[in-house]
């Protein structure tokens, strides 16, 4: 402050937003005093509160992106898409995203002070992967023989790149670092549309279940194969000469191993040669299994039966026979194996109705056996039921709902969403409650306003469908601010209109 006999100057260096105020100067002498008040309004250019970022989505997703800026006066925010569409408001909402290509959106925040804030983001579209059904993971055409090399290849039929490939052997992940004296692995083209697994030093331990998994931003798909390795026959128990007394029983043990499993015959040499063969009835090693699959993905149910040929396998769903031909929703494949027959039921795109009990019955001339597979289709939860507002106050509201269909996966949480119900877009508010709750209290509302709200359930598969929107109006309350410039005006003999200043819109009479 600089003061002389005739003048006083108040200087503020590096003006800040907090310097906005009313400033009063008082002067006095022996004859009296006087004062003067001036208003200092500091205008602040926009700054980011929350800068929007790129987002990657898949078809059907609800896209919500926030672009928040601060300044004085408060900046106005708008979005401009790469197609020229303009949307006002801080929140960009794209419901049920269906665009099959990426788009860009520019957020602009401006208050007329300084340069406006601009940020362009990309909304990347990612199509779920689907592995090739025309060239599936399968047993190599050349026999896989002990001591040689074999290759397995997986290919992507459709989906968005890049693809990350992962290989498993009996559930254990393989990598280029997986190496010992029995098994040496090389994985090539790990980010292309196909991946090849090369394995060296083949032994009996190379015979295993191999799975390739392809993953991108929208999900994954997998294929598996039980690799068969040809191993030379070798004795487990070699038969030896046996001496027995006349009339006694004699037992001679003979067993061998190899792949395919050796066929053992007994021959009796006297005046003529007679051979005896062991007959093997149809048999499943695994009688029961449980399989889970996400809705929309493919499911491959397998029945691997051992026994003498010819073998026949029949599939049923809930005790209703499934025909091999005549259906667009499934296919049945059969492959002859060294030990019997492998039958596979492929459900192309699983739906809720596919969740059921499947049975495969195998039969040959020596007997029959049965295997049961329970298929559980996992999906996102349904919309919460009976959503309604129980009680409403001026700044809070109590809401209640009933648990939705779980999608065969336990619910993990609920998200409550609410917003102002007016013609212009308003910011979406949301908060999360635990899966055990079916009630919630919405707080920090404004009195005398209309709101809309909904509830969304979520499980391990993803976020489900939102419940039907419910509208409610908060109660009025007495003004909390000081009444300034209260004016009254008669409109007619029976009505009087009052108005006031310096009150928030929610407190206006």
Automatic annotation (TrEMBL):
The protein's GO terms of the molecular function aspect are: cell-cell adhesion mediator activity
Show the InterPro entries listed in the entry.
FN3_dom, FN3_sf, Ig-like_dom, Ig-like_dom_sf, Ig-like_fold, Ig_I-set, Ig_sub, Ig_sub2
Q: Which residues form the Ig-like domain?
A: 1-41, 46-122, 128-228, 281-374
Does Repeat show up as a keyword for this record?
yes
> Carries keyword Repeat?
yes
PROSITE patterns of this UniProt entry?
Answer: FN3 (PS50853), IG_LIKE (PS50835)
Q: Which UniProt keywords apply?
A: Immunoglobulin domain, Repeat
Give a Gene Ontology cellular component term annotated to this protein.
axon
Query: Which BP terms from GO are recorded?
Result: axon guidance; dendrite self-avoidance; homophilic cell adhesion via plasma membrane adhesion molecules
Recorded hits in SUPFAM superfamilies, A to Z, give: Fibronectin type III (SSF49265), Immunoglobulin (SSF48726)
Domain (Fibronectin type-III) ranges: 383-477
Q: Which domain of life is it from?
A: Eukaryota
UniProt-listed CDD domains: FN3
What protein is this chain from? Uncharacterized protein
Source organism of the structure: Medioppia subpectinata
């Amino acid at each position: 402050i600089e003061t002389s006999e005739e003048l006083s100057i108040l200087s503020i260096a590096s003006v800040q937003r907090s310097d906005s105020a009313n400033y009063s100067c008082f002067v006095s002498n022996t004859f009296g005093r006087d004062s003067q008040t001036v208003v200092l309004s500091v205008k602040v250019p926009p700054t980011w509160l929350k800068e929007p970022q790129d987002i990657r989505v898949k078809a059907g997703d609800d896209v919500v992106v926030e672009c928040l800026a601060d300044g004085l006066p408060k900046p106005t925010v708008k979005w401009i898409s790469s197609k020229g569409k303009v949307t006002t408001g801080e929140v960009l909402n794209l419901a049920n995203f269906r665009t099959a290509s990426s788009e860009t959106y520019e957020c602009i925040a401006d208050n007329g002070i300084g340069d406006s804030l601009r940020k362009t983001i990309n909304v990347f579209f990612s199509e779920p992967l689907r592995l090739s059904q025309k060239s599936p993971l399968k047993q190599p055409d050349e026999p896989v023989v002990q001591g040689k090399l074999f290759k397995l290849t997986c290919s992507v039929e459709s989906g968005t790149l890049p693809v990350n490939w992962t290989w498993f052997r009996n559930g254990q992940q393989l990598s280029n670092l997986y190496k010992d004296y029995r098994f040496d692995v090389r994985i090539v083209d790990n980010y292309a549309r196909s991946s090849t697994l090369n394995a060296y030093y083949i032994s009996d331990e190379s015979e295993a279940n191999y799975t390739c998994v392809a993953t991108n931003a929208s999900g994954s798909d997998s294929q598996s194969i039980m690799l068969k390795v040809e191993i030379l026959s070798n004795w487990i128990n070699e038969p030896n000469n046996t001496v027995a007394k006349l009339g006694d029983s004699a037992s001679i043990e003979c067993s061998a191993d190899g792949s395919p499993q050796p066929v053992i015959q007994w021959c009796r040499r006297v005046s003529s040669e007679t051979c005896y063969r062991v007959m093997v009835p149809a048999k499943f090693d695994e009688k029961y299994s449980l399989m889970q699959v996400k809705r929309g993905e493919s499911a491959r149910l397998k029945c691997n039966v051992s026994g003498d040929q010819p073998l026949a396998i029949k599939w049923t769903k809930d005790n209703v026979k499934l025909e091999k031909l005549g259906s667009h929703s499934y296919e049945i494949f059969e492959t002859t194996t060294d030990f019997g027959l492998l039958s596979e039921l492929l459900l192309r795109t699983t739906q809720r109705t596919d969740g059921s009990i499947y049975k495969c019955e195998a039969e040959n001339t020596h007997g029959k056996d049965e295997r049961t597979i329970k298929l559980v289709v996992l999906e996102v939860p349904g919309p919460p039921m009976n959503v309604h507002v129980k009680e409403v106050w001026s700044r809070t509201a109590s809401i209640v709902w009933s648990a939705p269909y779980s999608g065969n996966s336990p619910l993990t949480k609920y998200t409550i969403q609410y917003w102002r119900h007016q013609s212009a877009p308003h910011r979406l508010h949301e908060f999360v409650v635990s899966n055990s709750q079916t009630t919630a209290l919405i707080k920090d509302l404004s009195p005398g306003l209309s709101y809309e709200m909904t509830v969304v359930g979520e499980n391990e598969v993803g976020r489900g469908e939102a419940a039907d929107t419910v509208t409610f109006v908060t109660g009025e309350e007495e003004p909390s601010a000081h009444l300034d410039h209260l004016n009254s005006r008669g409109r007619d003999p029976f009505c009087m209109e009052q108005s006031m200043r310096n009150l928030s819109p929610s407190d206006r009479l």
